[in-house]
Amino acid sequence: MTAGVLHLVVPRGVDDPERASGGNTYDRRLRAALSDAGWEVGLVEVEGGWPWSAALGAGGLDRALRGLPDNALVLVDGLLASRLPSVLVPASARLRVVLLVHLPVGVDDEDARPAERQVVATAASVVTPSAWCRDWLLREYDLDAGVVHVARPGVDLAPVVPSEGQAGSLLTVGSLAPVKGQDVLLEALSDVRDLAWRWACVGSTSVDPVFVARLRRRSVELGLADRIDLVGPLTGDALESAYAAADLLVLPSRAETYGMVVTEALARGLPVLASDVGGVREALGGAGLLVAPGGLAPALRRWLTDASLRDDLRAAARERRTELTGWSVTAGLVADVVRRAAA
After folding, report:
1. For residue range 292-328, what is the model confidence (pLDDT) as tens digits?
2. What is the CATH number of the domain that holds 106?
3. Could you tell me the pTM of the whole model?
4. CB 218 within 8 A of CB 113
5. So what's the pLDDT on residue 1?
6. pLDDT band at 163, cuts 50/70/90?
7. 317 and 180, same structural domain?
8. Are residues 251 and 213 in the same domain?
9. In the beta sheet, which residues pair with residue 274?
């Protein structure tokens, strides 16, 4: 006997390592955890390019939702839905729709807010990955507080990375794109060129090729190209090896709802330096270095020159590691929301 039947509607390529993103990881791991908890989860993938585009994917989303039976219980990724009230409003009248908002599109695009406001207002419930995201939605869209729920991403504990007092192996993990701020980190590293460091930049280079070309060109202009490895996307053992070889994870993002890579690092006892944006503070949980956007260079210099600070941050990362929860906890929170929507 199943716990229930749920249709999970996500961008196509959720399992494709070339389309790696925090949202895809959340969707994929949530589906697996719900299945493990006894739910019958039907995956509905909607094509719309990479990155997913409402202009390309609107027809596919409409057909996908029309193909579901009346009163079906549906969890829809907000990446698909937030710009498309013309699709979601009529669908919500026929289906029991729970909206999963990884990052409100209105955060970066004020013109998109009227459409997103209609979409979140029509959903039976909204799930977000952070309290920061929930607070933003409640404040900007005047939603009933009882409708919006937090289900933070889970994380798998991994072996603690080696700690040999080293400092100079820096790691970023995330698609190369303006929002992830690799260009911000590059400029900060130019200010500490007098110190010993090397940057492994892990992530897809296909999301924004123009940005990647600009990043490569700028690294040459700064004379830093030989200290930077644009590794591309990694999974499995290759990604584990990248974490194990790192001394510090850096998150230079311009925007983050939560920052799953932060807890991925902390789950390995790896210290973190991050920009204080969105829900990153929640993910860090008091561990790591949190700096104002644009304040990376002084923090990097401190990390690279202060052995005592490094020891403190490694200890804090290992302590935070013991507080992290797995995907079964995330799935339980989402399941509670879904059950209420089904009632």
Report:
1. 988 999 999 999 999 999 999 999 999 999 999 999 9
2. 3.40.50.2000
3. 0.93
4. no
5. 58
6. confident
7. yes
8. yes
9. 251, 290
Residues 225-255 pLDDT 10s: 999 999 999 999 999 999 999 999 999 999 9
Taking residues 58-75, what's their average pLDDT? 96
CB atoms < 10 A from the CB of 326, how many?
14
Statement to judge: residues 26 and 38 lie in one domain:
yes
Range of the domain at 239: 169-321
How far apart, in whole angstroms, are the C-alpha atoms of residue 251 and residue 259? Answer: 8
Edge-to-edge order in the sheet of strand 73-77: 39-46, 4-11, 73-77, 96-100, 125-128, 148-150
- What is the token pair recorded at 271? 């210290």
- Residues 187 and 138 both lie in one domain: no
DSSP state of 195: S
Residues 192, 146 share a domain: no
Beta bridge partners of 251: 274
| Residue 137 and residue 275 in one domain | no
CA trace torsion 162, 164, 166, 169 (10° rounding): -20
- In percent, the amount of the chain with pLDDT more than 90 equals 89
Task: Give the separation between CA 334 and CA 15, rounded to whole angstroms.
Answer: 20
In the chain, the number of structural domains is 2
In a domain, 164, yes or no: no
27 secondary structure, DSSP code: H
